[in-house]
């Protein structure tokens, strides 16, 4: 590997680091790319889900006889058709507990939120399926419900699950997670200044534009084919297998193009239901969620209620940090505690840390992962407190951070001991940026105030299992197959890597995503891992292929393979001693493949490691209209260590997209519930994601400090950019108004309310 | 309820179909005619993924009844390229990486084309407001806006 690694000096790169056109691009701009809902099959029928009209209710019985009798109805399923995972025994698939997954896909003992699936129907068309749903009689015993964290943790709150105990008593706190370092009591005793604040955030949705959809065909021989869009076809296969009892070897999951996921498509909702409907009806079944179903019953990410306390010396040295993070799990356990507990204080070298997360269940849909799951919630609280400490100490906000940055040997409370980390570099990049140095006109017009804020963030990044196959076609071109759904242009990066290593023109490389039957196991597209891990397995596969190509040339020339070089897409003799032969191109060797040993190609399956953490520092300018309460982001600059940008445009795109999602989180997005525990804004009109006219250009400053543990130096990118914006914008609004906000979103009504407070 | 027979033109070709009175144009395009390039993100007129033109006017096809297509000229993403030649917007979107997942892209392209037809020399603000009806959750809009501005500049030069 080292030989190739040495050759990949940045200045020598022809394809890596260039802005090539993505391999899947033309189909996506012409409407030809097939997303989950675009697939059809001969004889296909339609599935629909019946959902609970109550936020919390015991299901006494379900009578499906009238629905089954309706002409055109082909199958009905309820929880009794789904494999049950009894509450006593945990069965894990990755980070998902199948006890909760089986109850999330279909309500079992109780309906736990308004919109919880209770039955599903397949019929000749959507209208008949909907009519049949209306004929299903469910006998509910309506129970008191609870929505907000602070209500759910009260002693007299309605309890969702009898099995959940906290401090020995039945509770809606279904679990905790702790990260501890040193002794915070000792640390705080040494502090000259302590700031402690409580923060609240609302649940928000991942907001992918493509609703969940699938088509499943179950054949008479017990084999099933699933077309769906997800962040992992192998996850789809495994989870569907567990929930239906069909062995994995009998399920082929084919990944459709995916129209956004941001974490939410790391679990499934429809596939097992559609499989069972297909099995019962003997017909392929298609299911497509409406936007309302997506909002009510998938995702969102957690709301939070956090208290963060940081103690510092007069000179700014942090001596202790404590965080209590109450995180919404939705109706079943499994909120993203690891995000706030591990990430909040990780950028800093603090000797005494106590970080505790509480997994709080309530009558909302079960949360799903969202970009750096949970980390923005913790960073919001921690980075706002850091801002206040800087202010109280009269220190520059970035200098205070620089003084405390984690470095080589720093022990993080979550367990890691850092090697080289690149947090400082992100701070310095902002300090030296023209944006940070530019003067700010604080009162440009009457009624308008401007402010500037900064914040930093940390994300773990991830390695994990990946597989790749690199094949040389008979005409001497290259086909690369990986096992990762491509959400944001990862095929473009892989094409650059393969072209570079094999020394061929980019246009001669195709990159495909294999289905579960055509490529080895590959873990989820998530955790900022795909480019890191797939570039690694593609590199190793390409190295094997180059080895084969040298052997083939050696055979033709009757010399030793060691005496063959592979350069610029052709084999040449390594030196004068190797002999005099005209070069053999990829096409020459492919043409002679049969006689020199057979097809040329190699695959690698690996559990990748070495994904070092990612750090980011952001600066933002905002403008507040004090009469209307509107906060506008005027300018935004985000600096991040990206290791090596294999395809800079898609790296910038990750940063820009993550930042704008953060802007929505900070300023406009929130889940609103009515008194009956029903989501009040289950659509894009009232659930307000940023539109084009809400935001400015987002400047992405990519620091390319190679990750030494990766063949191209890649570091995960996708998640860190959503970690700082919540605090950065909050700190900017404070800078503009002189009033701190301790809750998100800072939407116009809330800004006006706060401005009215004396 | 009985279906209605509709004669219309889609991307310049005559098309006939039968539609339920309650079906949306989006539904017929995708599920009856197999033109799945037009996407459904919401079905309520709030995301723009279903953008098409009717007689050159930009509409959300999820808010148009299929029967309203009678006698009109519908333009969808499938008609944007001329054979192998991409529309300048399509080409620029690829060159400038103005898409990530791509689900919003057909709608954004149809909107952007309608915008440039009306205003060949838009400012950044005009592009931002012109595309404000098209949600994109992936890109943060930066590269989309740049690609539209670049295309406009290029198209002005070539006229
Ligand atoms: S699907 Fe028509 S606007 Fe969203
Ligand atoms: S590129 Fe994914 S929604 Fe726009």
TrEMBL record, chain A:
Classification via InterPro entries: Ald_Oxase/Xan_DH_a/b, Ald_Oxase/Xan_DH_a/b_sf, Ald_Oxase/xanthine_DH-like, AldOxase/xan_DH_MoCoBD1, AldOxase/xan_DH_MoCoBD2, AldOxase/xan_DH_Mopterin-bd_sf
SUPFAM superfamilies: CO dehydrogenase molybdoprotein N-domain-like, Molybdenum cofactor-binding domain
Keyword Oxidoreductase carried by entry: yes
Molecular functions per Gene Ontology: iron ion binding; oxidoreductase activity
UniProt keyword Amino-acid biosynthesis present: no
Keywords for this protein: Molybdenum, Oxidoreductase
Pfam families: Ald_Xan_dh_C, MoCoBD_1, MoCoBD_2
Domain Aldehyde oxidase/xanthine dehydrogenase a/b hammerhead: 30-144
Protein name from the UniProt record: Xanthine dehydrogenase family protein molybdopterin-binding subunit
Originating species: Dankookia rubra
Upper classification of the organism: Bacteria, Pseudomonadati, Pseudomonadota, Alphaproteobacteria, Acetobacterales
Automatic annotation (TrEMBL), chain B:
InterPro entries documented for this protein: 2Fe-2S-bd (IPR002888), 2Fe-2S-bd_dom_sf (IPR036884), 2Fe-2S_ferredoxin-like_sf (IPR036010), 2Fe-2S_ferredoxin-type (IPR001041), 2Fe2S_fd_BS (IPR006058), Beta-grasp_dom_sf (IPR012675), Diverse_Oxidoreductases (IPR051452)
Keyword annotations of the record: 2Fe-2S, Iron, Iron-sulfur, Metal-binding, Oxidoreductase
Limits of the 2Fe-2S ferredoxin-type domain: 4-80
SUPFAM superfamilies recorded: 2Fe-2S ferredoxin-like, CO dehydrogenase ISP C-domain like
GO MF annotation list: 2 iron, 2 sulfur cluster binding; metal ion binding; oxidoreductase activity
Family matches, as CDD domains: fer2 (cd00207)
Pfam families linked to this entry: Fer2 (PF00111), Fer2_2 (PF01799)
PANTHER family assigned to the protein according to its UniProt record, in alphabetical order: OXIDOREDUCTASE WITH IRON-SULFUR SUBUNIT
Annotated protein name in UniProt: (2Fe-2S)-binding protein
Species annotation: Dankookia rubra
């Amino acid at each position: 590997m080292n030989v190739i690694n040495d050759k990949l000096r940045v200045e020598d790169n022809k394809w890596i680091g260039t802005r090539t056109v993505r391999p899947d691009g033309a189909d996506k701009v012409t409407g030809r790319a097939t997303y989950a809902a675009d697939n059809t099959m001969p004889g296909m029928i339609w599935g629909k889900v019946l959902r609970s009209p109550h936020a919390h209710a015991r299901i006494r019985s379900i009578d499906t006889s009238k629905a089954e009798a309706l002409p055109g109805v082909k199958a009905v399923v309820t929880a009794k058709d789904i494999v049950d995972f009894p509450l006593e025994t945990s069965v894990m698939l990755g980070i998902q507990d199948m006890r909760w997954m089986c109850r999330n896909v279909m309500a079992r003992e109780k309906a736990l939120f308004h919109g919880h699936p209770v039955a599903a129907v397949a019929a000749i068309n959507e209208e008949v399926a909907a009519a049949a749903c209306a004929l299903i009689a469910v006998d509910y015993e309506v129970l008191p419900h609870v929505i907000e964290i602070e209500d759910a943790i009260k002693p007299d709150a309605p309890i969702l699950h009898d099995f959940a105990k906290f401090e020995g008593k039945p509770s809606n706190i279904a679990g905790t997670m702790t990260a501890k370092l040193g002794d915070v009591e000792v640390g705080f005793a040494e502090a000259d200044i302590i700031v402690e604040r409580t923060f609240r955030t609302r649940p928000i949705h991942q907001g992918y534009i493509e609703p969940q959809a699938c088509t499943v065909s179950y054949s008479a021989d017990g084999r099933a084919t699933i077309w769906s869009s997800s962040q992992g076809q192998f996850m789809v296969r495994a989870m569907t297998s567990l929930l239906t009892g069909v062995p994995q070897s009998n399920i082929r999951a084919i990944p459709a193009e995916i129209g956004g996921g941001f974490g939410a498509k790391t679990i499934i909702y429809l596939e097992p239901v559609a499989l069972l409907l297909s099995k019962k009806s003997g017909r392929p079944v298609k299911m497509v969620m409406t936007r309302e179903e997506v909002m009510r019953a998938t995702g969102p990410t957690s709301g939070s209620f956090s208290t963060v306390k940081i103690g510092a010396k007069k000179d700014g040295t942090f001596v202790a940090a404590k965080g209590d993070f109450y995180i919404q799990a939705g109706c079943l356990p499994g909120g993203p505690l690891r995000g706030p507990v591990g990430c909040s204080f990780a950028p800093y070298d603090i000797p005494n840390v106590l970080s505790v997360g509480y997994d709080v269940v309530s009558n909302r849909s079960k949360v799903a992962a969202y970009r750096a799951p949970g980390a923005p919630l913790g960073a919001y609280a921690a980075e706002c407190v850091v801002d206040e400490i800087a202010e109280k100490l009269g220190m520059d906000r970035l200098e205070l951070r620089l003084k405390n940055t984690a470095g080589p040997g720093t022990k993080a409370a979550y367990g890691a001991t850092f090697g080289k980390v690149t947090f400082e570099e992100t701070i310095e990049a902002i300090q030296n940026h023209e944006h940070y140095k530019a003067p700010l006109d604080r009162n440009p017009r009457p009624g308008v105030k401007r402010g500037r804020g900064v914040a930093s963030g940390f994300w773990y990044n991830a390695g994990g299992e990946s597989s790749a196959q690199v094949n040389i076609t008979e005409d001497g071109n290259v086909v690369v197959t990986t096992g990762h759904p491509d959400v944001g242009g990862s095929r473009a990066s892989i094409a650059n890597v393969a072209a570079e290593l094999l020394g061929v023109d980019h246009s001669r490389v195709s990159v495909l995503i294999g289905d579960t039957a055509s490529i080895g196991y590959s873990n989820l597209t998530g955790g900022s891992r795909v480019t890191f891990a797939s570039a690694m397995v593609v590199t190793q596969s390409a190295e094997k292929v180059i080895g084969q190509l040298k052997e083939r040339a050696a055979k033709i020339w009757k010399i030793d393979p060691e005496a063959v070089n592979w350069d610029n897409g052709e084999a040449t003799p390594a030196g004068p001693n190797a002999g005099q032969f005209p070069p053999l191109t990829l096409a020459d060797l492919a043409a002679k493949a049969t006689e020199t040993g057979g097809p040329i190609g190699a695959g690698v399956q690996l559990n990748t490691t070495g994904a070092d953490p990612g750090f980011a520092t952001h600066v933002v300018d905002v403008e507040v209209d004090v009469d209307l309460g509107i906060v506008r982001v005027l300018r935004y600059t985000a600096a991040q260590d990206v290791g090596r940008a294999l395809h800079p445009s898609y790296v910038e795109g990750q940063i820009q997209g993550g930042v704008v999602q953060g802007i929505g989180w900070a300023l406009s997005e929130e889940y609103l519930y009515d008194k009956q525990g029903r989501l009040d804004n289950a659509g894009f009109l009232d659930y307000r994601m940023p539109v084009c006219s809400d935001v400015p250009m987002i400047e992405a400053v990519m620091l390319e400090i190679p990750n030494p543990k990766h063949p191209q130096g890649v570091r995960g990118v996708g998640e860190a950019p959503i970690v700082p914006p919540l605090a950065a914008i909050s700190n900017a609004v404070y800078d503009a108004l002189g009033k701190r906000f301790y809750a998100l979103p800072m939407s116009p009504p809330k800004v006006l309310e706060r401005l009215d407070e004396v | 309820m009985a279906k209605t027979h509709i004669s219309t033109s889609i991307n310049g070709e005559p098309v006939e179909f039968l539609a339920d009175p309650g079906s949306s144009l989006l539904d017929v395009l995708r599920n009856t005619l197999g033109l799945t390039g037009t996407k459904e993100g919401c079905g309520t007129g709030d995301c723009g993924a279903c953008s098409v033109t009717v007689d050159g006017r930009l509409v959300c096809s999820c808010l148009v009844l299929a029967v309203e297509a009678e006698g009109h000229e519908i333009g969808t993403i499938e008609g944007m390229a001329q054979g192998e030649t991409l529309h300048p917007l399509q080409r620029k979107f690829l060159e400038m990486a103005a898409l990530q997942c791509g689900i919003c892209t057909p709608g954004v392209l149809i909107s952007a084309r309608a915008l440039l037809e009306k205003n060949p020399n838009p400012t950044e603000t005009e592009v931002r407001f012109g595309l404000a009806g098209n949600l994109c959750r992936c890109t943060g809009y930066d590269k989309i806006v740049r690609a539209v501005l670049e295309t406009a500049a290029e198209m002005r030069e070539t006229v």
